[in-house]
Design goal:
The complex is a heterodimer of chains A (about 475) and B (about 100). In chain A, α2 packs antiparallel against α3 and α9 crosses α11. By secondary structure, chain A is of the alpha/beta class. In chain A, about 35% of the residues lie in helices and about 10% in strands. Chain A has 15 helices and 11 strands. Chain B is about 30% helix and about 5% strand. A two-stranded antiparallel ribbon of chain B has the order 1-2. The longest helix of chain B has 16 residues. Chain B is flat. Classes of the chains: A alpha/beta (about 475), B mainly alpha (about 100). At the A-B interface, α9, α10, α11, α12 and α13 of A face α1 and α2 of B.
C-alpha cells in the first residue's frame, strides 16, 4: 500500500514505529498534491514551508506525530495567508492562529495547506471561490460540495489523511457525502470558534474530515476542549469514543424521521440508505419512525438567520484595518462601498442583501424574530424525538454530486439541497456523514447520523459500527 | 413580500455596497424568489413560542477582570493598508470647508 493511502491512525502508528519518517510522509503527500493540482483543493500550498514545518516540529512522540492536516482557509493560521476564498482578504496574513490550529500544533500536527472553499463559507458546491472551483475527484465535471469542498476533495483524493472544515448549514457533512469521506460537525460549543472567520455566529462550528470514523475521532479529540476566548465554548469533558470495546448495536434505538424520506430524494440515495438501515436492523438495532414536524420550515428559517448574521459579521470588511482597500476612494463612505463591492463575490452580496432586508426596520419581527421562534420549534422537535431514540439516521443530500454550473442561474434551488443538514445546525446538535454506497454513476452517497447534544462519543461509536457494516471501498483516482 | 428596484437600491446603501451596471435588475430576479420562499414561515404557528437566540441558554461566560497581555501594536497594524505614526489612515471624514 502506498503511504498516502494510509489512514491517519495507521500513518501515525507507522511513523512511531519508524517505518518512515515524517519528512518522507510529507514528501509523498507533496508529490500527490502536485500531481492532482488541477483539482484546485488548495488556495495556499507551499511544499517548502510544509517540509520546514515538519522538520521543525520533529515530534514523533506526539499524538499526531508530525502528520500534515489540511486547514480550510476560513480558519486563521498565524503567518500563513487566510483569505476565506475572498478577494477582500487576499494577502491577509493573520497575526494569530485559531484555537483549533493551536491545539492541532500542540498535538504535533502540521498545517498541510489552506484548503479552498466557497467564499466566506457561503455555498454548497465550492463554485463561489475567488480562487476558482474545486473539482470532485470522483468526476472532475462535478462539484465536490461545499462550502468545505477543498478539504473534502483533498482527503478523498488522498492528498492528506485528514482536514478541518467549518459547518454552518452542512458545509462539512455535505461535501463529505459528495466526496465519499467521513465528515463530522460536533455539538455547537465543542470546538472553539476563536480564530475562525465569523459567518453566522450562532450556527458556525469547526468540523473534521477523514477517511474513517476512527481517524475523524482521533483528530476531533485533539482539537476539542474549552477555550476561554470563545464565549460560546462550553466546558465539558471530551469523552474518547475509541477503542470501541464491547460497544454493540444491539438494542440501539435508531430513529428514522419520516419528513426526511419524502419524494425529493434520488432513488440510488434512498436505496443505499435503506440498505444500511436494514443492515443495522440485522445487527440488532431497533429502527423506529419518528416525527420532526417542523422540518419543512428549517430551510426558510436558516436562510433568514444565516444571511442576517452574515450581514452583521461581514460589516467589518471595510478596507480600513486589513484586506482589500479601494485606492481611489473620495470619502470614507466611498472607501467602504467600493472596497466591499469590488471585494465580495455575487453569492456573498446576495446574502448580505437578504440579511440586511430581514434585519431592517419594519421587517425584523416578521422575518428575523419569526425565524428564531421557528428555530426553537425545530430544536424542540429533536429533543422530543430523542426521548424515543438514541440516534437519528437520515440522508445527507437529496442527490449525489451535481455537475459544475448546475445551479448558476438559480441560487434558491441550490439552497434547497441543504434540507437535511441545516436542521442540525439550527438545533446545535452533533452530526456525522459517512459514505454508505455508490450510485450507478459511481458517485458516493453519504448517510447522516445525528445524536443528542454532547453525545459525540455515542455518535462516533454508532458511526464506526455502521461503517463496519458497509463493504464498499471509497477510493477515487485509483492510479 | 416582493421588493422593487428602489428597495434593492436602499438595501445596497444600508449594506455599504455599490451596485454595478445591471446589478440591481439581476438581483431583483434572484432576491424575490428567495424572499418569497422564506416568507413561508408565516404559515408556521409560533404563538407563545419564545425566540431562540442562543442554543445553550443559561450558560453565561464571564472571566475575572484581570489585565492580560494583548497584541503588540506593530503586529495589529501589519495588515493595515495605510499606516502612519502607529495610526491607521482613512479618507478625511470632517469637512473643513
Amino acid at each position: 500500500m502506498t503511504i498516502t493511502d494510509l489512514s491517519l491512525k495507521d500513518a501515525i502508528a507507522q511513523l512511531k514505529s519508524k517505518e518512515f519518517t515524517a519528512e518522507e510522509y510529507a514528501q509523498a503527500l507533496i508529490a500527490r498534491i502536485e500531481k492532482y493540482a488541477h483539482l484546485n483543493c488548495f488556495i495556499d500550498f507551499d511544499a517548502q514551508r510544509l517540509l520546514d514545518a515538519v522538520r521543525a516540529i520533529n515530534r514523533q512522540d506526539s499524538p499526531l506525530a508530525g502528520v500534515s492536516i489540511g486547514i480550510k482557509d476560513m480558519i486563521l493560521t498565524k503567518g500563513i495567508q487566510t483569505t476565506a476564498a475572498s478577494k477582500i482578504l487576499r494577502g491577509f496574513v493573520p497575526p494569530y492562529s485559531a484555537h483549533v490550529v493551536e491545539q492541532l500544533e500542540r498535538a504535533g500536527g502540521v498545517c498541510g495547506g489552506k484548503t479552498n472553499l466557497d467564499e466566506f463559507a457561503m455555498g454548497s458546491s465550492n463554485e463561489h471561490s475567488a480562487f476558482g472551483p474545486v473539482l470532485n475527484p470522483w468526476d472532475t465535471t462535478r462539484v465536490p460540495g461545499g462550502s468545505s469542498g477543498g478539504s473534502a476533495a483533498a482527503v478523498a483524493a488522498r492528498l492528506l489523511p485528514a482536514a478541518l472544515g467549518t459547518d454552518t448549514g452542512g458545509s462539512v457533512r455535505q461535501p463529505a457525502a459528495f466526496c465519499g469521506v467521513v465528515g463530522m460537525k460536533p455539538t455547537y460549543g465543542r470546538l472553539s470558534r476563536y480564530g475562525v472567520v465569523a459567518f453566522a455566529s450562532s450556527l458556525d462550528q469547526v468540523g473534521v474530515f477523514a477517511r474513517t470514523v476512527e481517524d475523524c475521532s482521533l483528530l476531533y479529540e485533539q482539537i476539542a476542549g474549552w477555550d476561554k476566548r470563545d464565549a460560546t465554548s462550553v466546558q465539558r469533558p471530551v469523552e474518547s469514543a475509541f477503542p470501541l470495546g464491547d460497544f454493540s448495536l444491539s438494542g440501539l434505538r435508531v430513529g428514522f424521521p419520516k419528513q426526511y424520506y419524502s419524494d425529493g430524494i434520488e432513488e440510488s440515495v434512498r436505496s443505499s440508505i435503506f440498505k444500511t438501515r436494514d443492515a443495522l436492523q440485522a445487527a440488532g438495532a431497533e429502527i423506529l419512525e419518528v416525527d420532526l414536524p417542523h422540518t419543512e420550515a428549517a430551510i426558510a428559517a436558516y436562510y433568514i438567520l444565516n444571511p442576517a448574521e452574515a450581514a452583521s459579521n461581514l460589516s467589518r470588511y471595510d478596507g480600513v484595518r486589513y484586506g482589500l482597500s479601494e485606492e481611489k476612494a473620495e470619502s470614507l463612505h466611498d472607501l467602504y462601498r467600493k472596497t466591499r463591492s469590488h471585494g465580495f463575490g455575487s453569492e456573498v452580496k446576495r446574502r448580505i442583501l437578504v440579511g440586511t432586508y430581514v434585519l431592517s426596520k419594519g421587517y425584523y419581527d416578521a422575518y428575523y424574530r419569526k425565524a428564531q421562534r421557528v428555530r426553537r420549534l425545530i430544536l424542540q422537535d429533536f429533543v422530543s424525538a430523542f426521548t424515543k431514540c438514541d440516534v437519528l439516521l437520515t440522508p445527507v443530500t437529496p442527490t449525489t454530486a451535481f455537475p459544475l454550473g448546475a445551479f448558476e442561474a438559480d441560487p434558491l434551488t441550490m439552497y434547497l439541497n441543504d434540507v437535511f443538514t441545516v436542521p442540525v445546525n439550527l438545533a446545535g446538535l452533533p452530526g456525522i456523514s459517512i459514505p454508505c454506497g455508490l450510485d450507478e454513476k459511481q458517485l458516493p452517497i453519504g448517510l447522516q447520523l445525528i445524536a443528542p447534544a454532547w453525545q459525540e462519543a455515542l455518535l462516533l461509536r454508532v458511526a464506526a459500527a455502521t461503517e463496519a457494516l458497509i463493504d464498499t471501498e471509497f477510493k477515487p483516482l485509483e492510479n | 413580500m416582493s421588493i422593487d428596484l428602489q428597495d434593492i437600491k436602499h438595501l445596497f446603501e444600508l449594506a455599504a455596497l455599490h451596485p454595478e451596471t445591471g446589478e440591481l435588475e439581476a438581483l431583483s430576479e434572484q432576491l424575490n424568489p428567495i424572499l418569497a420562499y422564506v416568507s413561508k414561515l408565516n404559515d408556521v404557528n409560533t404563538d407563545s413560542v419564545e425566540p431562540l437566540n442562543y442554543i445553550h441558554q443559561g450558560h453565561a461566560a464571564s472571566r475575572a477582570d484581570v489585565e492580560e497581555p494583548s497584541m503588540a501594536r506593530e503586529e495589529g497594524l501589519r495588515n493595515a493598508p495605510r499606516v502612519a505614526d502607529g495610526y491607521i489612515l482613512v479618507p478625511k471624514v470632517i469637512d473643513n470647508s
